[in-house]
Amino acid sequence: MARTISYREAINEALAQEMERDESVIVMGEDNAGGMGSPGEMDAWGGVLGVTKGLYHKFPGRVLDTPISESAFIGAAIGAATRGMRPVAELMFIDFMGVCFDQIYNQAAKFRYMFGGKAVTPVVVRTMYGAGLRAAAQHSQALYPIFTHIPGLKVVVPSSPYEAKGLLIQSIRDDDPVIFCEHKMLYDTTGEVPEESYTIPFGEANVAREGGDVTIVAIGRMVSVALEAADELASSGVEAEVIDPRTTSPLDTDTILESVENTGRLVVVDEATPRCNMATDISATVAQEAFGSLHAPIQMVTAPHTPVPFADSLEDFYMPDAQKVVNAAKATVGWKR
Amino acid sequence: MTDTLPSNTAHELNPDALLAAYRTMRTIREFEERVHEEFATGEIPGFVHLYAGEEASAAGVCVHLDDRDVLASTHRGHGHCIAKGVDPKEMMAEIYGRVTGSCHGKGGSMHIADLSKGMLGANGIVGGGPPLICGAALAAKLQGTGGVGVAFFGDGASNQGTTLEALNLASVWNLPAIFVAENNGYAEATSSTWSVAADNIADRAAGFGMPGVIVDGFDFFAVYEAAAEAIDRARNGGGPTLIEVKFTRYFGHFEGDQQAYRADEVARARETLDCLKRFRGRVTETGQLADHQLNEIDNEVDRLIDDAVTEAKAAPKPTEADLTTDVYITY
Amino acid sequence: MADARIAKVTMPKWGLSMTSGRITEWLVEEGTEVKAGAELAEIDTDKINGVLESPADGVLRRIIAGTDSSAPIGATIAVVAPADVPDAEIEQVVAEAEAQLASGEVEEPQGPVVATVEVDGRPISYATMGDGDEVVVLVHGYGGDKNSWLFVQEPLSRTRTVHAIDLPGHGTSGKDVGDGSLDTLAATVLGFLDVVGAGRAHLVGHSLGGAVVTAAAAAAPDKVSALTLVAPAGYGSRVDAGYLRGFASAGSRRELRPHLGKLFADESQVTRQLVDDLLRYKRLDGVGAALETLLGTLLDGDDQAIDAAPLLATVEVPVTVIWGRADKVFAPADASALGQAKLRVVDGAGHMAHMEKPNEVVAAVEAAAGQQRATRETRELVGNEGGEVPRA
């Protein structure tokens, strides 16, 4: 039965159901329970934003709190994965990748290839990304493009509670290293999610809205922004097709190309900063593969090339919003040589 | 303060075990000496970092390990690979970049691994191994196998954040892990007496809540004993240990290194400290083994290494079709 | 006090998830006389397009929600009343309706009530509408679920208790299908009747469900008052095995969509929502395995594996078969294969006649009820409880 739950609850449910089903699934991270060694209660936090709450007591011995040493525990998750465990490690903020990146991109990502196809590293690194919480420059970035760049990693960016649960279950069952990127502003959003376990395949984009005038590809939280923009465009008679790639690696270029071949116009909405982000990646691919179908230059709607500012007025300017997407779409529709 | 262990337990190993230990060390030595020669011809691609001189460390630790146990190594990994049972012929082929190599030519010297033998790989990143071993040890603990994880790292890595974090985590989680700091005096071209702030790497053990011990790396038996204690401790739930092995490497940081930063300590070491010579001296003195037995092994190993090189040179290289395989499991 | 003969034409609730509908075309003009059941308007929901019928005899006095407008379920979108009802009264009803639409405060009609029971250790989900004495049970086909009866359940429920069930492996029932055999599925249907205390029920089955209810009727004649089969499996017709296999194995929108086009006479009935809903179902744990197992029940190589005709031969209650002429998945069976069943082939429908021409199915069920009543009366007349009775 499908019922309405939050993105946070959907992730918690995915973890709980997989831990129930498979004993080799373990969870580790800073304060994933909280209270270790302290006089108060255990599972005091259940993760900094409560995502892993309740798992500690439900699965004794399988939810491990860690000291603040990302290299060590992300590396440990990876090492344990090569030895038959299926760890789900939490990198609290994607901004912290700097203190453990080697273990992810030089070790986990490359074992399969470097060791001639003999390694299996089924590790999942869950991590929070995104602006909007006024958490400022070091806690608000959207760094999934950097992980996407690395061969050997799979990168997942769920846009809704339904997507989050299915994609996380898929991530845990997948035998390759997966970086699972949760937008911190989506945790409280709700949607219909089946009670039962289910998976969503990687590399298959979701067409969130059909339309024949312009294709809008959006990542993560930007999918909601794009849908908002699409509603507004519809009232001006422009029907937008909104595509949610779900995973940036592997990327479903087929669906995107098929759509652009039909509409002839493309807008890519990516919260990541503009140099070498998903917008540039997707735009270049479309320009190369579907050049003949394009009626107008591709428009990219992204953050500016700046760190994330603190002041709420500034952060609001920083993030792509529906109006910016509408403007970009109209630019493609109204474009004349 | 940590003490240097005296070694006096040659009698604990039976003759077969002693022969096996000698074979391991001799295989490593011949392998490395030969690679040194072949590399100079220019036929071997990329970088190699040779372990010659350090054999007692790998052999002394690995003699205690079985299939439950996992080890992680460094860029100077040939010795650990051989000691853990990786096929020297497959290793040689890998170094030559051939399809028959342990990694089908996709990894090279710095990434030789054999997960079926619990060898998590040589590692091109200094300090890359210790966190992985925390993971392997964690898995062994949760799975109840009784296995241990051994992280070999160098004096250079002993200053790397990843290593220090791993030491802390291993104690906090009480993991069955052994950290072996192979202090050969140099991290690339910089002396460890300068770059390591403490007098001994083993002094750091107390700072991470675990026992630390220093051993003479040219003495197989000293390493053997220290490793026995540490591995027992780990297997019995007593947590991690830091062993500092002190010795010297006979060759440069990498092959091609002119080693201008060194004096003539290698010549002296080869003459008076060499682990193979000392091992031979000890076991023949006590009458446990005879010279001819050891000589036989020398000859067998010579042939093995010869064959390994011949076969490696004759083996095919990977083709373009191999370029994009095994990036992921599913595609 | 409004005239009681004024009938409000309201936006229906078709299926569980419908919250509003868009009127795509009014088929009748204001001022036209209509009979109860006449087609008034075409309505588009996210899932599918349906046709709204007049609730009463009279004249279509006013269209409140015009073409291309949307209204929430339960909203009054038109008024039908006899010609002699004064305009002023009509205006009053219209004004109320418009105010409701504007304010958004529309009373939601009672949709199906969903519940779960355990049958043979498996959770069976079902949706119930209506509370009449007569019980009808609707059984979907391969890969379907209880929602596929959305246009049929509501009209039937006005005078009956109508249960639409999810077979094992489908919808929100448990996904374990055991051996997936016809017997297992039939036993589930019969077990369901017991658990809900249905006594005797009219069983309606589509496709695989058609074979299942046939088997159920053969196994427990005392529990089945009539059968209505919609494009049933098991009656020797040519089957598109490629469709069944393709449906089972499709993993993506791109793979699934072309197959779904084969289900309907009009391919545009395959909406994005329909495809999405099916994909969501197929992703649930256990569904893949269930569908594979059931393929084994349905197919023997490229032919039908089920032979339901011998089972049908033992069934003595009225049986009606509805088949879309344009059915590409199970070609309409030869009447000879259907024994004493009444076959009605319907134009403008493919494999999904209960969605494409739901009136035909509703009519078939109601006609069977008429037959049953006649049969019972004849029995009473003849004073013959258990013997042979001439068919009405």
Describe this structure in words.
The complex is a heterotrimer of chains A (337), B (331) and C (392). Chain A has 337 residues and is of the alpha/beta class. Chain A is 35% helix and 20% strand. By secondary structure, chain B is an alpha/beta fold. Chain B has one domain: Rossmann fold, CATH 3.40.50.970. Chain B is built from 12 helices and 7 strands. The radius of gyration of chain B is 19 Å and the shape is globular. In chain C, the strands form 4 sheets. Chain C has an 8-stranded mixed β-sheet with strand order 9-10-12-11-13-14-17-18, sandwiched between helices. The longest helix of chain C has 25 residues. The C terminus of chain C is likely disordered. In chain C, 32% of the residues lie in helices and 23% in strands. Chain C is built from 11 helices and 18 strands. Chains in contact: A-B, A-C.
Overall shape of chain B: it is globular
CATH topology of chain B: Rossmann fold
Poorly predicted segments of chain A: none
Radius of gyration of chain B, in Å, reads 19 Å
Give the overall pLDDT of chain B as a whole number: 93
Q: CATH homologous superfamily of the largest domain in chain A - what is it? A: Thiamin diphosphate (ThDP)-binding fold, Pyr/PP domains
The helix content of chain A is 25-40%
Corresponding CATH architecture of the largest domain in chain A = 3-Layer(aba) Sandwich
Give the C-level CATH assignment of the largest domain in chain A. Alpha Beta
Kindly provide the name of the CATH class of chain B. Answer: Alpha Beta
| Spans of at least 5 consecutive residues with low confidence of chain B | 1-6
Keywords:
heterotrimer, A: 337 residues, Rossmann fold, five-stranded mixed beta sheet, 14 strands, 35% helix, globular, B: 331 residues, alpha/beta, five-stranded parallel beta sheet, 12 helices, 7 strands, disordered N terminus
Structure summary:
The complex is a heterotrimer of chains A (337), B (331) and C (392). Chain B is of the alpha/beta class and 331 residues long.
How is this fold's topology laid out?
The complex is a heterotrimer of chains A (337), B (331) and C (392).
Chain A: E1 2-6, H1 7-21, E2 25-29, H2 55-58, E3 63-65, H3 70-81, E4 86-93, H4 101-114, E5 124-129, H5 144-148, E6 154-156, H6 161-173, E7 178-183, E8 190-194, E9 206-209, E10 214-218, H7 222-235, E11 240-244, E12 247-249, H8 253-263, E13 266-270, H9 278-289, E14 299-302, H10 312-318, H11 322-333
Chain B: H1 15-40, H2 55-62, E1 70-72, H3 78-83, H4 88-95, H5 129-143, E2 149-154, H6 161-172, E3 177-183, E4 186-187, E5 190-191, H7 192-195, H8 204-207, E6 212-216, H9 220-235, E7 241-246, H10 265-273, H11 275-285, H12 291-314
Parallel strand pairs in B: 1-2, 2-3, 3-7, 6-7
Antiparallel strand pairs in B: 4-5
Chain C: E1 7-10, E2 20-26, E3 33-34, E4 39-44, E5 49-53, E6 58-63, E7 70-72, E8 76-81, H1 87-103, E9 113-119, E10 122-129, E11 135-139, H2 150-156, E12 161-165, H3 182-195, E13 201-206, H4 208-219, E14 224-230, H5 241-249, H6 253-260, H7 272-283, H8 287-298, E15 299-300, E16 303-304, H9 309-313, E17 319-324, E18 342-346, H10 353-356, H11 358-382
Parallel strand pairs in C: 11-12, 11-13, 13-14, 14-17, 17-18
Antiparallel strand pairs in C: 1-8, 2-4, 2-7, 3-6, 4-5, 6-8, 9-10, 10-12, 15-16
